[in-house]
């Protein structure tokens, strides 16, 4: 049915002026981007140097281990990602991207400063244990409170920075012009380049300083980087185009659900009148014919009484009458949920590699040559390098060769990449499980805390984890981006981070359940600070089993929601 004929458009739609302010020609573009990229680079260098080595710091300086250590890291990591949702809401609805980024950067600076103080002032930490296998000197509650305050401020900062940085950079270009679109593409390339450089410096140089030279210097460096991040961002203030907040898509979704519930008895079939309302770019929204999904929420846009509109033709009460665009936004979000769930299971795997993989590295032979000690935190770099190498090989070598052989421009589609990524994840957990069994047996045979098995043996599982990200995570981000309308791209990023957040929380719950159940049977699989007394391989096999279920779920259900043609992604 063509419902265009049964709808009305408000007689007057407010149009925002498209004429730029007098000084707009001196703002935006590359004169602004250099400050935004500098802000992001310094922030990422600081945050990744902590994320990559937090397990080692808490183990060696706070005498933490077992389930409690993993809980801290999982909950903190999950909170950093989860807070991108309220961060995006505050940015879109109240503060705007500039102020959200600035406050997020300041919060991160304060948090990293507290972490640096914990390294510099011995009173803020428990006394170090000489024997890691028999340590009975846990941190006091007030010492943990100081640590958690620092981590909390860092999480709040991440919530403000992650959903806004790329979007704020995109605001500096006029994407209605060919030149602006070209500049935006170049910006993305430089953004990812700077991100990669910051990541490499953080996971090599800074992590090495923290582990082998001084934790104080190793944390002062990222603190100084965050100070530079804030300073650079403020210096460039006069060059920025700062878009005004136009309301949050998340708030719109809640309003649609509320309005649909209030009008649950209203029919939304033939003859009803829908409220089109203004779209976010000031033009009127349009309707399309595909209305098969979530017909119930369409009731939120049904005009049941002319008095629901004011003299300008706008809704008087947005909690009772919503526009067609608001309803479409809700449908876009619900349409990606089945595939989004697949991403949660994939992130469960990468989260565990970032924690338990590093804990494995701590208890393995790390000496190369006469006295060079490989920092355990360097193992996270293996995944990143694998991801980068695969993408380069795929784009620059494999695709050109395939085109020469077949004569067609053919790429792996999103379904194929997600499934390959899940299979890589299954292989990763199997390899990790069998390696942990061998590492543990070798350590017990030698009777030492550190296993004689070389840290090099961890390379395969970290490489497989990198390939899991290269296939599944990248494809998931692409799926979320292309399925969302342009004005919801920031929402896509926030939803992507939310999947990682939920994965961290689920892992926390799973670890605590396993610990509780196995402890009752005599010995916990995960409860001891010494991995040699645990059965970590069983946990890896459980995560591998989750990946098998995830593969079946995606293959037989979620894959039906992945469409390569995106022309219908905004269907009402």
Gist?
With 572 residues, the protein is mostly helical.
CATH superfamily of the largest domain: MFS general substrate transporter like domains
Taking the sheet with the most strands, its summary is: 2 strands, parallel
Range of strand content:
under 5%
**CATH topology grouping of the largest domain:** Growth Hormone, Chain: A
Q: Strand-and-helix sequence, N→C?
A: HHHHHHHHHHEEEHHEHHH
Architecture of the largest domain, according to CATH? Up-down Bundle
> What's the tally of helices?
15
Q: What would you say this structure looks like, in words?
A:
With 572 residues, the protein is an all-alpha fold. It folds into two domains: 24-246, MFS general substrate transporter like domains (Growth Hormone, Chain: A, Up-down Bundle); 333-572, MFS general substrate transporter like domains (Growth Hormone, Chain: A, Up-down Bundle). It is built from 15 helices and four strands. The protein has helices at 30-51, 54-61, 66-82, 84-120, 141-161, 165-170, 178-213, 215-235, 249-262, 324-362, 379-406, 414-446, 459-483, 489-520, 536-556, and strands at residues 364-365, 367-368, 372-373, 451-454. The protein has a two-stranded parallel ribbon with strand order 1-4. A hairpin with a 3-residue loop joins strand 2 (367-368) and strand 3 (372-373). Helix 11 (379-406) packs across helix 13 (459-483). It is globular and about 80 Å long.
Write the layout of secondary structure elements.
Elements: H1 30-51, H2 54-61, H3 66-82, H4 84-120, H5 141-161, H6 165-170, H7 178-213, H8 215-235, H9 249-262, H10 324-362, E1 364-365, E2 367-368, E3 372-373, H11 379-406, H12 414-446, E4 451-454, H13 459-483, H14 489-520, H15 536-556
Parallel strand pairs: 1-4
Antiparallel strand pairs: 2-3
Helix pairs in contact: 1-7, 1-8, 3-5, 3-14, 4-5, 4-8, 7-8, 9-10, 10-12, 10-13, 10-14, 10-15, 11-13, 12-13, 12-15, 13-14
């Amino acid at each position: 049915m063509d419902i265009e004929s049964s709808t009305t458009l408000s007689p007057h739609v407010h149009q925002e002026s498209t004429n730029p302010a007098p000084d707009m020609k001196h703002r935006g573009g590359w004169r602004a981007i250099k400050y935004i990229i500098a802000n992001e680079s310094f922030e990422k260098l600081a945050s990744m140097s902590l994320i990559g080595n937090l397990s080692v710091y808490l183990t060696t300086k706070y005498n933490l281990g077992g389930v409690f250590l993993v809980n801290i890291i999982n909950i903190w990591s999950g909170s950093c990602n989860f807070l991108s949702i309220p961060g995006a809401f505050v940015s879109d609805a109240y503060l705007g991207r500039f102020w959200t980024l600035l406050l997020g950067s300041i919060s991160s600076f304060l948090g990293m400063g507290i972490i640096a103080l914990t390294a510099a002032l011995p009173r803020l930490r428990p006394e170090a244990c000489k024997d890691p296998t028999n340590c009975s000197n846990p941190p006091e509650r007030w010492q943990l409170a100081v640590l958690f305050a620092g981590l909390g401020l860092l999480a709040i900062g991440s919530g403000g920075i992650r959903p806004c940085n790329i979007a704020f950079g995109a605001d500096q270009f006029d994407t209605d012009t060919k030149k602006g679109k070209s500049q935006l593409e170049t910006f993305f390339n430089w953004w990812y380049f700077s991100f990669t450089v910051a990541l490499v410096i953080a996971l090599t140089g800074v992590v090495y300083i923290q582990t082998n030279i001084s934790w104080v210097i190793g944390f002062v460096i990222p603190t100084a980087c965050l100070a530079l991040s804030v300073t650079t961002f403020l210096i460039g203030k006069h060059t920025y185009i700062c878009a005004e907040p136009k309301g949050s898509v998340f708030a719109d979704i809640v309003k649609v659900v509320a309005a649909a519930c209030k009008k649950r008895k209203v029919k939304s079939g033939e003859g009803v009148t829908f409220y089109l309302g203004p779209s976010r770019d000031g033009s009127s929204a349009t309707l399309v014919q595909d209305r098969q999904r979530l017909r119930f929420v369409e009731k939120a846009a049904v005009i049941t009484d002319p008095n629901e509109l004011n003299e300008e033709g706008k809704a008087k009460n947005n909690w009772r009458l919503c526009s067609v665009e608001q309803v479409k936004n809700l449908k876009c979000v619900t349409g990606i949920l089945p595939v989004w769930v697949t991403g949660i299971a994939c992130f469960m795997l990468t989260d565990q590699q970032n924690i338990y993989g590093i804990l494995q590295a701590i208890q393995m032979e790390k000496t190369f040559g006469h006295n060079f000690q490989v920092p355990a935190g360097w193992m996270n770099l293996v995944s990143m390098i694998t991801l980068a190498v695969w993408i380069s090989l795929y784009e620059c070598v494999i695709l050109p060769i395939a085109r020469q052989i077949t004569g067609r421009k053919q790429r792996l589609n999103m379904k194929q990449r997600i499934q390959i990524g899940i299979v890589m994840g299954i292989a990763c957990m199997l390899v990790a499980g069998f390696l942990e069994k061998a590492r543990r047996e070798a350590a017990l045979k030698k009777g030492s805390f550190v296993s004689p098995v070389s840290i090099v043996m961890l390379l395969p599982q970290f490489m497989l984890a990198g390939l899991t990200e290269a296939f599944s995570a990248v494809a998931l981000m692409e799926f979320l981006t292309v399925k969302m309308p342009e004005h919801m791209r920031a929402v896509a990023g926030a939803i992507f981070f939310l999947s990682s957040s939920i994965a961290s929380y689920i892992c926390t719950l799973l670890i605590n359940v396993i610990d509780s159940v196995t402890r009752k049977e005599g010995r916990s699989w995960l409860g001891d600070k010494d991995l040699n007394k645990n059965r970590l391989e069983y946990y890896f096999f459980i995560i591998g089993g989750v990946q098998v279920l995830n593969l079946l779920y995606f293959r037989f259900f979620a894959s039906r929601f992945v469409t390569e043609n995106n022309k219908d992604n905004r269907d009402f």
